[in-house]
Amino acid sequence: MDGAMNRKARIFLAEDNSGDVELLRIALKSAEVDCDLLVVSDGREALDFVRQQGKYENHQPPDLAVLDLNLPKNDGLEVLEALRANSAFEGVPVAIVSSASAPQELAKMLSLRVDRFIPKPADLDLYLRIGTTLKELLRTTS
Amino acid sequence: MNEQAEDRRKRFLINFTAAIAATAAATIVRFAIAPFAGPAVPFITYFVAALILAWYYGFFSAVLCVAFGSAIGSRYFLIHDEPGHVLATSNDWAAVIGFAIVALAISLLLHLLRTAFDRRKATENAEREQRRWFEATLASIGDAVITTDLEGRVVHANSVAQSLLGSTERKMSGRPLNEFFRVIDEVSGEELDSLVPAVLKTGNVVGLPERSALKSTDGTTIPIDDTAAPIRNAGGRITGTVLVFRDVTARRRAEETVRLLASIVESSQDAIITHDLNGRFTTWNQGAERIFGYSAEEMIGQPASRIAKVETENEIPEVLRRIQAGERIEQYLAVRRTKSGQLIDVSIIISPIYDELGRISGASKIARDIGAQVRAAAQLAQANAALKSSNERLARFNEDLERFAFVASHDLQEPLRMMTVYSQLLARSFPGQPNGDVNKYIDYMTGGARRMRELLADLLAFAELGARGEQPTASTDLNLVLDKVTQNLRASIDETGATIRAEHLPVVNVYEGHFIALFQNLISNAIKYRGTEKPEVRVFVEQNTGDWRFGVADNGIGIEREYLDRIFVPFKRLHGANIPGSGIGLAICQRVIERYGGRIWAESEAGRGSTFLFTLPQIARTKAEGH
């Protein structure tokens, strides 16, 4: 296909709910996105990742970051903020996949520039469509 | 004695001197008239002088004058041809003796006349004096006094009597007393018998009965007190009557005041008691009996320490000391012991009592049993504290509940979402399974999860209504609200063929969303709980004083009366799963209406449709519109 398919896309996913992790895998698979999924399940670890510190010191920025807002320890907005503060992550598209949030959370999120905000759907078909959305996001930025 | 003798001597000298002087004057006058009179009437001037002396200076002076006059007259004026011959003839002697006898006789007569005249004058003076004294006495008596004769005719009436009877002594004198003095019974108004005949008949002192009043000529009545007594002369014979009466208006009033005060004291719920300076009770009212349990008979004369609590007995001398200093003691809180030994809280006001000379003679105490007040105050304080803490608890609980509902409705969505999505995934993982049961079970799962989501959404809506700090500011046209609701319910309206008719609704100061929720719940209920006929929903409004009264009436299945008050309870449902619903709709309606200070209720009977009525205070209205 095109250049993005020349190598596996690297997607960073901060999501504590394994059910959602599984569903996202299915969604990406059904959208035929060939990728390596790096999953962290709490905000603390996600922060380490986006700051490239601790065990992620030598990790390269991913091709796409998918964040849940409601994370244990440090929340998704903190992670997003740290990500934006790290110049190495410049150009990394960010998708927020989260359940409905309070308005002030959404406002802050938007001020930190996100590429997609996707409410977690309660319907399988809608869920599977997330895969397509993420695929498009990968394509436009690569 | 000595003085009398002196007096007599002085009078003798005066009379003697007057006689000499008068004789001398008579002699001079006789010499003066001698050229005209000649030898005629030799003693005429002495005769006049003797008479004058007899009148003014007494018989003795006249005798002297006659004696000297006879001598001088015989010597100088009884003229004879031969000088030096005195009383020369028998005629001369006859003239002198005749003069002397006539002059003395007339002088004596004059003297006697004069004496009688003087005596009579003295008597008259004495009488006048007596009378003046009597009148002065009668006048000085503060009471009205009237005397009558034996026929009951007025003899005297003093000035008090005159003014009380509205007449004068002159007018009354000699007239029957009954004409001026009519006494009636104050209560019955009947005229009472005069006292005069009774006195004259019995000879005793007679008094009027209580409640007698004088009926005056102008018709007004004056309460009087009257006593009549006989007047007896020196011989003890009754010669008339004397009536002494007085206006007792002031006394009656004072008596009434005393009675009133006494009845106030007696009927008072408070203990009103007095004691003397020795601390012994002198009066004890019924209130005191009620509060302390002792009767007046038991307590009068007893020391005040009888009702003091043992350990506070030493208060009493201190109180007595302050009272003796003329101090008034206000709101003195004390503990007292009743007859039954119970200790009670009383509030006492103690004031000194003064006698008529202004000296402090004792103390009056007004004691009130404040046990109930004390207990009530304690209970009130306790209740207030309890209320405050329960209010705080309630506020905290409400906050917790709202937070809980909010969190629950959010967070519970998550696992449900998982259940829904994975059950769908499960269904897709077994396509075309010969065993159809799996799909059926999965349908139940997804159906249950969906229903749970709906419940949580309603719960969230309900919880959000409770959020504080919002004041209604928006002018909301309820007609537009109703249009939106109709739009939202379009599917079920079309499906059931429902008709919705609404009167023109006002513009009110509420949040649109609240009233969309309200009308949507009421109208969707009207459609949902329909009967066999096509649903007909009628929305109406009337303007009462102070509020709007709205109604949503339907022709549905109605509500049994016993459930009418339960339908507003959150999650309370009257129907099973055959009619879907969370049971939160009416609770939301109630919450909306109560938020704006209104009231919501339902009127219905099973099978006869329901009418949901709610009020909205007009203060929330911005613009009145007719309908």
**Relative helix content of chain A:** 40-55%
N-end to C-end Cα span of chain B: 128 Å
Radius of gyration of chain A: 14 Å
Number of strands of chain B: 20
Please tell me how large the radius of gyration of chain B is.
62 Å
Structure at a glance:
The complex is a heterodimer of chains A (142) and B (627). Chain A has 142 residues and is α/β, with parallel strands linked by helices. Helices cover 42% and strands 18% of the residues of chain A.
Secondary-structure blueprint of this entry?
The complex is a heterodimer of chains A (142) and B (627).
Chain A: E1 9-14, H1 18-30, E2 35-40, H2 43-51, E3 64-67, H3 76-85, E4 94-98, H4 103-111, E5 116-119, H5 124-141
Parallel strand pairs in A: 1-2, 1-3, 3-4, 4-5
Helix pairs in contact in A: 1-5, 2-3
Chain B: H1 2-37, H2 44-57, H3 59-77, H4 90-140, E1 144-148, E2 154-157, H5 159-165, H6 169-172, E3 183-185, H7 195-202, E4 206-207, E5 212-215, E6 221-232, E7 238-247, H8 249-267, E8 271-276, E9 281-284, H9 286-292, H10 296-299, H11 315-324, E10 329-337, E11 343-354, E12 360-369, H12 371-411, H13 413-429, H14 437-465, E13 475-477, H15 478-488, H16 490-496, E14 499-502, E15 507-509, H17 512-528, E16 536-543, E17 547-553, H18 585-595, E18 600-604, E19 610-617, E20 621-623
Parallel strand pairs in B: 14-16
Antiparallel strand pairs in B: 1-2, 1-7, 3-5, 4-6, 5-6, 6-7, 8-9, 8-12, 10-11, 11-12, 13-15, 15-20, 16-17, 17-19, 18-19
Structure, explained:
The complex is a heterodimer of chains A (142) and B (627). Chain A is an alpha/beta fold. Chain A has helices at residues 18-30, 43-51, 76-85, 103-111, 124-141; strands spanning 9-14, 35-40, 64-67, 94-98, 116-119. Helices cover 42% and strands 18% of the residues of chain A. A 5-stranded parallel beta sheet of chain A has the order 2-1-3-4-5, sandwiched between helices. In chain A, helix 2 (43-51) packs parallel to helix 3. The longest helix of chain A has 18 residues, at 124-141. In chain B, helix 1 (2-37) packs antiparallel against helix 2, helix 1 (2-37) packs parallel to helix 3 and helix 2 runs parallel beside helix 4 (90-140). Chain B has helices at residues 2-37, 44-57, 59-77, 90-140, 159-165, 169-172, 195-202, 249-267, 286-292, 296-299, 315-324, 371-411, 413-429, 437-465, 478-488, 490-496, 512-528, 585-595; strands at 144-148, 154-157, 183-185, 206-207, 212-215, 221-232, 238-247, 271-276, 281-284, 329-337, 343-354, 360-369, 475-477, 499-502, 507-509, 536-543, 547-553, 600-604, 610-617, 621-623. The relative contact order of chain B is 0.04. Helices cover 50% and strands 19% of the residues of chain B. The longest helix of chain B has 51 residues, at 90-140. By secondary structure, chain B is an alpha+beta fold. Chain A binds chain B through residues 17, 19-20, 23, 26, 99-100, 120-124, 127, and chain B through 410, 413-414, 416-418, 420-422, 424-425, 428, 453.
